[in-house]
Amino acid sequence: MPSTDIKLGLPGRAEYGRVARVGAAHLAHRRGFNLDEIDDLRLAIDEAAIMLLGPAPRPGRIDVIYRVDEHVVEVELTSVLDDDSISLPTERTERFGELTDGLVDECEVDREARRVRMVKRHIA
């Protein structure tokens, strides 16, 4: 099955992080991921949204790109703020790393671009 890319733009508010989480869970379920794998992915996406948005809503949006292959779901989330000069604070990225360690198979955070990329593989 060929790889599929799905793009989604969400308002930069915490309640819309749920949309990103549900989308990833649905795509993982359709690829045969088990419930534990899906829950891990959902938790990682929740933490990514918290890291990207911070404690208070800011004007802007979260761009989400899902890349789905036969046994892989990759999710890239980018915070697009009206003020693009603000990088992610180190303490938030460190907390994110601690909380998501072991939830996904790969994780990359780009503080300056306000982007996180996560990969979850299904063990068939």
Description of the structure:
The protein has 3 helices and 5 strands. The chain has 124 residues and is an alpha+beta fold. The chain has a single domain, classed as Heat Shock Protein 90 (2-Layer Sandwich), CATH 3.30.565.10. The radius of gyration is 14 Å and the shape is globular. The relative contact order is 0.23.
Give me a quick take on this structure:
The protein is α+β, with helices and mostly antiparallel strands and 124 residues long.
Keywords:
single chain, 124 residues, alpha+beta, Heat Shock Protein 90, five-stranded antiparallel β-sheet, globular
What count of structural domains? 1
CATH C-level? Alpha Beta
Specify the overall morphology: globular
**What's the total number of strands?**
5
The end-to-end distance, rounded to whole angstroms, is 15 Å
Give me the Rg, rounded. 14 Å
Helix run count: 3
Corresponding CATH architecture = 2-Layer Sandwich
Secondary-structure map:
Blueprint: E1 4-11, H1 17-30, H2 35-53, E2 60-69, E3 72-81, H3 90-100, E4 106-110, E5 115-121
Antiparallel strand pairs: 1-2, 2-3, 3-5, 4-5
Helix pairs in contact: 1-2, 2-3
